[in-house]
Design goal:
alpha+beta, 2 helices, elongated
């Protein structure tokens, strides 16, 4: 999710457009700002469609991933975020917090 678009201004010296502010991305569930240059700052997953296209999702936590999951229409398959030593505790806490019927 894009929270803020990049901003451009023409350089006063040469007249060429310059980026004055980079695009800001956020969690696809809660909107929290994410640093996409740091893989440690977010979880990502991809939803693959039968027509060959795909959608990518970036979330800030396993809690947001599990909140987002029921809203995603899966017609082919989806890869989940990777479990790492840094995320395993949060993963299990998020699993425990899910209220199953």
């Amino acid at each position: 999710m894009i929270i803020k678009e990049e901003e451009w201004q023409n350089c006063p010296e040469c007249g060429r457009p310059k980026v004055t502010r980079e695009r800001v991305h956020g969690c696809d569930e809660c909107g929290k700002e994410l640093d996409l240059d740091s893989r440690a700052d977010y979880l990502w997953c991809t939803n693959f469609h039968q027509n060959g296209e795909h959608d990518e999702f970036n979330v800030c936590s396993w809690v947001c991933f599990f909140a987002k999951l029921p809203k995603i229409e899966i017609d082919e398959f989806m890869d989940f975020p990777y479990l790492t030593p840094d995320t395993i505790q949060e993963f299990w806490a998020a699993i425990r917090s899910i209220n199953l019927p």
